[in-house]
Amino acid sequence: MGGWAIAVHGGAGVDPNLPQERQDQAKQLLTRCLNLGISALRSSLPAVDVVELVVRELETDPFFNSGRGSALTEKGTVEMEASIMDGWGRRCGAVSGITTVKNPVSLARLVMDKSPHSYLAFSGAQEFAKQQGVEMVDNEYFITEDNKGMLMLAKEANTIMFDYRIPAVGLETCSLALESPLQMNGLPIGVYAPETVGCVVVDSQGRCAAATSTGGLMNKMTGRIGDSPLIGAGTYACNLCGISCTGEGEAIIRGTLARDVAAVMEYKGLGLQEAADFVIKERLDEGKAGLIAVSNNGEVAYGFNCVGMFRGCATEDGFMEVGIWE
Hints:
Oligomer: single chain
Helix content: 25-40%
CATH architecture: 4-Layer Sandwich
Order of helices and strands: EHHEEHEHHEEEEEEHHHEEEE
Structural class: alpha+beta
CATH superfamily: (Glycosyl)asparaginase
Distance between the termini: 29 Å
Shape: globular
Number of domains: 1
């Protein structure tokens, strides 16, 4: 075993005109989350505890699209989803349609640990949350003024916004003002914005875990479920590796992206970075996405086929990196 390792992401697809101040804020948040995870790993917390801890931090900060700061539905409300997977025994939990649970990833953990099921959604998930006594807040807690503005722009453009973090100032230089070739199930969408958060960890015992959380797409239909809560699509962990994906959810679902990284490692004998590169190139068709991954021997990998991905990683030997672009 090569020691512990951790990677985090704040979404794939970044506006190339994103102001430097926003880039710096993103890097500071990713660094803070990495340091939180590093401290936990040095304290010998198991991988599954660390991914939950880090994603909770990302959900609490409104900068990225999860928890507080989540993208809004076409009705101006928030519907969140999350999943977590412990590679030790391939245990998993997932939730969708969450509207009042402060930290959806922790509800997903409770589904894994405290229910006979792997996935709960909408009213059933909300009722389970009440039974478990998790912290609840009003839906308005998750809604930010920035996202109200982004929803207005999306409605004016009559588009689902994969690109929901476009600054209101200087719109003419940003992706929403341009004719975008990107489509989702044949329909045009915007591009260039973070739309998920995730964390993958391998601990000092070689146990891998992954967690992913999101508010989904800006101006999405109510009831839409993306890849983030789907085990094998947006999240996967096993004895070999842990993976968290981000990007065009419908493409990630069709490609079973997270599971495929583990599958080509297992069946084709590829290394972690080779496997990440392979699935990004071969499994997305025309979709745009990215992923982060760790292996049971302490490797870290990432890959994406869009303009940038907010990401960071650290390993037990002292390596640490935070980046956005190639």
